[in-house]
Amino acid sequence: MSTAPPAPAELPAEGTDGPAVLARMVANRHDDADWRNGRIFGLIFHPDDEELEELLADVSREYLAENALNPVRFPSLARMERETADMVAGLLHGTPGAGGLTSGGTESIFMSVLVARETARKKGIAEPVLVTAVTAHPAFAKACHLLDMRQIRVSVDEGYRLDVEAMRAAVGPDTAMVVASAPCYPYGVMDPVTEVAAIALEAGVLCHVDACLGGMMLPFWERLGEPVPPWDFRVEGVTSISADLHKYGYAFKGASVLLHRDVAQYRTQWWFDDGAWGGGLYGSPTAAGTRPAPPIAGAWAALRHLGEAGYVRQAAKVRDATRRLMAGVEAIDGLTITSTPDLCVFQFGSDVLDMDVVAEALADRGWFPNRQPGGLHLMVSPYHLKVADEFLVALAEAVEVARDGGTSDAAPAVYGAARPTGGSSS
Ligand SMILES: Cc1ncc(COP(=O)(O)O)c(C=O)c1O
């Protein structure tokens, strides 16, 4: 039986006092994912750090209204953006002053593709091409769509890593940039950055490393003594890197860093208008015009609050939780981990069980791993160390439901979705 769609919202004739608005807002959250108890494995990177959460709440209050569009009006924001980008550049062995913040991974990727297009056009390439693995994040396809570029997606090997020979064969005279993921989202494996960058060097094209997911984890993974294949600016030929602060940087949403190998390349990211429109000279390094202050200030605050030692401690928790989860999954008859992940993100599936049934039985128990076409996907946060065992008990039960022949009427897997959304706030 289908229910009638809710009436479209209308602006109320009269306003309502703040507490009542807030109460209604809170009531509207009844079907939101329970991230605080670690029940989801995507969208949120739960640091399990109450002091950090308080700090970020204070930061957003402090910078409630400021705008990073004009660095002259709020120089404190310009300084924090510079310092934040430079702190990350230091971690990634990059160049100070050669990058800045964006609103997230998708915008960092968009701007990196724009730089590639502009660089290629200067070389006389009329229709510049981007070459990525098939596992590259859809943000590259979106950027190509918006920037009217062609993307060639090359295959991956049996370990889900970019196939170097396929990339070499795909690179041609119109190639603007090649891309490697560190790691890719679906399988959590690193593409062979050294080989991809060597192809770029040989062809004289740019090489972007998408470390949106891994950029704020890999440096600390390395400090923990874990094996980390070369991926950052220490690799000759890597010309830009995206690294999200709103993922394993534990800042709140709206903060990513796009770093270039040198300042000259960073300048290509900037758009300048001459002022003929009547409003004055306009210069901007991002897709957005007005830029909210809290993500910039929050990213700066998170880096300062945690410091290197804090990030290493968080990385250790994530590593331990990942190990426990992987061992627990492998111990359940019928489940296999799809790849050998390099970090803390992985997919598991089954040749014998219907994973949609497993997902639904887990949902019935209040757990929401990400659903992918090949199985279930976990992106592990520090908090998950506390609940890994509980999740594994629920998973074992869910597998038994599937083994007993449960059925599913689940919709196709949706990226990052923990549960269906919809309805009205009334
Ligand atoms: C590897 C990778 N690249 C890019 C992105 C896009 O980041 P955002 O969702 O912040 O735009 C993601 C998001 O999960 C990602 O995992």
Automatic annotation (TrEMBL):
The modification N6-(pyridoxal phosphate)lysine is found at K247. InterPro entries: GrpII_AminoAcid_Decarb, PyrdxlP-dep_de-COase, PyrdxlP-dep_Trfase, PyrdxlP-dep_Trfase_major, PyrdxlP-dep_Trfase_small. The keyword Lyase applies. SUPFAM superfamilies: PLP-dependent transferases (SSF53383). Keywords: Lyase, Pyridoxal phosphate. One of its GO terms (biological process) is carboxylic acid metabolic process. Its cofactor is pyridoxal 5'-phosphate. The keyword Transmembrane helix does not apply. One of its GO terms (molecular function) is pyridoxal phosphate binding. Coiled coil: none annotated. Belongs to the group II decarboxylase family. Sphingosine-1-phosphate lyase subfamily. This is Glutamate or tyrosine decarboxylase. It comes from Blastococcus aggregatus.
